[in-house]
Hints:
The chain is mainly alpha-helical and about 220 residues long. The protein is built from 10 helices and 3 strands.
Amino acid sequence: MKKLYVITWVLFMSYFAYFITTNVNAQTYKYGSRGDVVKEIQTRLKRWGYYAGTVDGIYGYQTYLSVKNFQSKNGLIADGVVGPKTLAALGINVSSSSSSSGNGSQNLDLMTRVINGEARGEPYIGQVAVGGVVLNRVRDPRFPSTIPGVVYQPGAFTAVADGQINAAVVDSSRKAAVDALNGWDPSGGAIYYYNPEKTTNKWILSRPVIKVIGKHIFCK
């Protein structure tokens, strides 16, 4: 009886270890990985200017270097391995039970962080307006068609470049993200905004102004 118990226990632990390993690996992509998820990783990195190679679904050295670059620019551990955190930053949900609610959760988190990095300390309506600009870009054919694509487009947001996107989140940023995602756009349809006290970009200064909220000027 004791021998049977030991055998049963060993079999259970073996199955448990296999289950855990399989599920961890299912959301970890690294050098040598292949498949559709790798293609999606390459596609997004290429769209945002991090990857210049072929979108072939093969996680080679160029993909590895591109992932490391993306990670280092976005406050992630730059190990060249695409795990759950990097997948979330890329806006990729590979769970077998993935649904719109899962993607919605990722979008809410990213929207919260970009609003927090760009506009915390601004009037609440101005925080929501920044979220509105992100969504206006998603709908505009001149910009990427997803929230992660817009946020991580090279040079698009100062908070991504200087790491403020990873700052401690204040409550108003999450509330503003929810309001923006629910359709409130205090920016009046703006696709750009800037702080005139900080920018020297002549092009952005030439854009038609829609409104001023706090320290930000929202424009077309």
